[in-house]
Amino acid sequence: MDVSRLLECSWRYPAYPGYLREKDENSYMSSFNVARIALLEARMSREIADMIRRYGGEPYCAPAVREAALDCEEQVSVFIDHLTSLSLHTVVFFTGVGVEALFRVAEKLGRCPELLSALHKVTVVCRGPKPAAVLKRKEVPISVNAKEPYTTKELLEAMQPLALAGTNVAIVHYGERNTFLAQALQDRGASLEELCLYEWLLPEDTTPLRILARDIIDDRVDAVVFTSQIQARHLFLVAADLVSPAELAHALNTRTIVASIGPTCTAVLQDLGVTPHVVPEHPKIGYLVKALAEFIGQDS
After folding, report:
1. How far apart are CA 53 and CA 33, in angstroms?
2. Between the CA of residue 4 and those of 10, 24, 200, 233, 257, what are the distances in Å?
3. All structural domains of the chain
4. What's the predicted TM-score (pTM) here?
5. What is the greatest pairwise CA distance in the chain?
6. pLDDT, tens digit, for every residue of 22-44?
7. pLDDT mean over 169-177
């Protein structure tokens, strides 16, 4: 595949939300044309790899992130105490993984019924469909849900109507603490209780990620799919032992097609010196794979 020719012409196909909506559905073959597509996703790597194959591509899996549970039984127990005593007024959930982790620890403590009952008595806020889906399966009512593209910005906008001054707000973070949200809520007069139930770590074996970095430099990868910002940070971290950040960024910008799932991921890539060539209309994996297939299909 002549990736360099695609990238030279990519100014005609700007990667911005809404681009796909403006194009004729039949203008591309929507095929990867046997392109080698690198995936850094760990949790859903099999599902995404299957999608790549259905579009005629060759998936190259190099997981960049490991989600590790933290020892947090004491914190969760105190959190449930505060919920049941009505000391907390609002609970913010970022991810479905975070919701599942909370209920898993509550189950271990034998306090799931208390947790479920208490969540019915507070304002439950979600940053998008993933935490909302897990909570809905547990029949927990959701008061506020962020709109696309489900970033901290949309979450804060969704929470704007809430009277937070003088109230206690719990935040169930993702793999790292969201300092921006915490500060914004404190600036609005809220007192915070924060839970970090798991953390993002490098894979125990970083060899596949190191090999991927070298393959990107050596032009043996047609495209790289980033489904979270931590994947980009970890790729550059591991690659630092092999090449300079500038070399890796140059290879990604000029010899490899970079697909980013949404604004947060794109912003981190740009901070690292990489401008994605493909960003889907909606920040979802299915749309991302389809957008990438359409981009590559231009070469047909």
Report:
1. 10
2. 10, 24, 34, 25, 9
3. 3-65+204-297 (3.40.50.10090), 68-200 (3.40.50.10090)
4. 0.88
5. 63
6. 333 443 346 888 899 999 999 88
7. 98
Residue 15 scores a pLDDT above 60? no
Strand partners, 259: 225, 278
Nearest-angstrom CA–CA distance, 109 and 257: 47
Q: Provide the sign of the torsion angle of the four alpha carbons 284, 285, 287, 291, taken in this order.
A: positive
Report whether 48 contacts 39 (CB < 8 A). yes
Q: Rounded distance, CA 142 to CA 159, Å?
A: 12
**DSSP state letters, 133-193:** HHHHHTT---SEEPPTT--HHHHHHHHTTS--TT-EEEEE--SS--HHHHHHHHHTT-EEE
Q: Could you tell me if 203 and 66 are in contact, meaning their C-beta atoms sit under 8 angstroms apart?
A: yes
Cβ(17)–Cβ(276) under 8 Å?
Answer: no
Look at residues 128, 99, 129 and name the one whose alpha carbon lies nearest to residue 197.
Answer: 99
Tokens 């029949």 belong to residue: 139
